[in-house]
UniProtKB/TrEMBL annotation:
InterPro entries registered for this protein in UniProt: Integrase_cat-core, RNaseH-like_sf, RNaseH_sf, Transposase_IS3/IS150/IS904
Origin organism lineage: Bacteria, Pseudomonadati, Bacteroidota, Sphingobacteriia, Sphingobacteriales
Source organism of this protein record: Sphingobacterium litopenaei
PROSITE patterns noted in UniProt: INTEGRASE (PS50994)
Protein name (database record): IS3 family transposase
Domain Integrase catalytic: 1-62
One Pfam family matching this protein: rve_2
Length: 66
């Protein structure tokens, strides 16, 4: 099984969230990770996805199939 996709996500999450912020507790860290995943999927633009977020790209792709 290829883990490149999840390894890329974790690398990005660490560089854009974990290394630049201090967390008061594990609960705080968990909240921030959940918020980051929402941001990553819905707002963060990816150049390899035609400058769309992952959700926008999937929506666009599935609409073009119908």
């Amino acid at each position: 099984m290829d883990n490149a996709v999840i390894e890329n996500l974790f690398g990005t999450l660490k560089s854009e969230l974990f290394y630049i912020q201090k967390f008061n507790s594990i609960a705080h860290l968990k909240r921030e990770i959940k918020e980051y995943i929402k941001y990553y999927n819905n707002e963060r633009i990816k150049s390899n996805l035609n400058k769309m977020s992952p959700v926008e790209y999937r929506t666009h792709y599935y609409k073009s199939l119908n």
